[in-house]
């Protein structure tokens, strides 16, 4: 969380937009808000994304809301009351939840940033291209894993460390 707070600080200081893209959100912020405002009974199986899904066409978004979860005060430190969110329809499933620092809206850059997200989703075929690409290059392929284990084994032998591999891992390596 310290890294996230430093990232939020850098985003604020340098005015570089930062957007959290949650493709499958289970958040209940809007439902909780409606329940509290209108004394509604709790719904056990609904989420915010389901609530707004039928109201949005591709590219549409909900109004921007300020996240007021109690947990944020522990996690985000000085940014506990500076995280906004909206739901953006980016594919034929439920809308994605976007979380972003409040300074983006205050600086009048919200629509520009959301257009960038829409562009990333178009290029990525329904999912932001930048995130998809980062995930693709971050995955270790089997050849990479084998090279890593060889390096680790050589290093452990050089350092006089006994390296023991779990039976599960040895089994997986043999099968592949």
Please specify the SSE layout and strand pairing:
Elements: H1 2-14, E1 20-22, H2 29-38, H3 48-53, E2 65-66, H4 71-75, E3 83-88, E4 96-101, H5 103-106, H6 110-123, H7 129-138, H8 142-158, H9 167-175
Antiparallel strand pairs: 1-4, 2-3, 3-4
Task: Explain what the structure shows.
The protein has helices at 2-14, 29-38, 48-53, 71-75, 103-106, 110-123, 129-138, 142-158, 167-175, and strands at 20-22, 65-66, 83-88, 96-101. The protein is elongated, with a radius of gyration of 22 Å. It has nine helices and four strands. It folds into two domains: 2-137, no CATH class; 140-175, no CATH class. It has a four-stranded antiparallel β-sheet with strand order 1-4-3-2. With 176 residues, the chain is an alpha+beta fold. The mean pLDDT is 88. It is 50% helix and 10% strand. The two termini are 36 Å apart. The longest helix is centred in the last third of the chain and has 17 residues, at 142-158.
Quaternary assembly: single chain
Distance between the termini: 36 Å
Number of beta strands: 4
Alpha-beta classification: alpha+beta
Could you give the order of strands across the largest sheet? 1-4-3-2
What count of domains describes the coordinates? 2
State the share of residues found in helices, binned by percent: 40-55%
Structure annotation, total helices: 9
Order of helices and strands: HEHHEHEEHHHHH
Which whole number gives the mean pLDDT? 88
Largest sheet: 4 strands, antiparallel
Shape: elongated
Radius of gyration: 22 Å
Strand content: 5-15%
Low-pLDDT stretches: none
């Amino acid at each position: 969380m310290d890294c996230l707070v430093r990232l939020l600080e850098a985003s604020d200081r340098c005015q570089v937009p930062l957007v959290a893209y949650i493709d499958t959100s289970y958040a209940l912020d809007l439902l909780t808000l409606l329940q509290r405002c209108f004394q509604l009974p709790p719904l056990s199986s609904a989420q915010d994304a389901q609530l707004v899904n039928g109201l949005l066409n591709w590219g549409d978004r909900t109004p921007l809301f300020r996240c007021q979860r109690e947990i944020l005060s522990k996690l985000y430190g000085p940014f506990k009351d500076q995280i906004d969110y909206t739901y953006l329809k980016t594919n034929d499933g439920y809308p994605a939840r976007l979380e972003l620092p409040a300074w983006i809206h205050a600086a009048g850059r919200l629509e520009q940033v959301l257009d960038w997200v829409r562009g990333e989703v178009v290029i990525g075929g329904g999912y932001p291209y930048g995130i998809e690409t980062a995930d693709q290059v971050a995955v270790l392929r089997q050849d990479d894993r084998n090279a890593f284990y060889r390096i680790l084994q050589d290093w452990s032998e050089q350092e006089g460390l006994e390296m023991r591999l779990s039976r599960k891992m040895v089994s997986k390596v043999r099968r592949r």
